[in-house]
Write a structure and sequence with these properties.
Elements lengths: L15 E9 L4 E7 L3 E2 L6 E2 L4 E11 L2 E10 L5 E3 L4
Antiparallel strand pairs: 1-2, 1-7, 2-5, 3-4, 5-6
Length: 87
């Protein structure tokens, strides 16, 4: 067994779990997540409570050390979604 960083990777519980595909209000498809730990909505700043559904969306990231897109959680009030196969 090698001592590369990947050979000793320890799995830590995540802050969210993938629920599956979901339809957004505009008809596009995204991935729905369920929060395991509290999150903050990247658009309105509201708390996303544990067990709540949310989605992740790209948002421009501007910092002195990097530029690009960052995927941030967004609550269902800002980005309504319906999990496919439910209701």
């Amino acid at each position: 067994m090698s001592d590369t960083p990947n050979s000793r990777r320890v799995r830590h519980p995540g802050k969210s779990r993938i629920v599956g595909p979901a339809r957004q209000a505009d008809g596009t498809t995204t991935t729905a997540y369920r929060a395991v730990a509290p999150h903050v909505c990247g658009q309105c700043g509201a708390e996303i409570a544990p067990d709540a559904l949310f989605s992740r969306h790209a948002r421009p990231q501007m910092a002195y050390y990097s530029t690009g897109l960052s995927r941030v959680p967004m609550c269902v009030r800002c980005r309504p979604l319906q999990v496919e196969g439910e209701g």
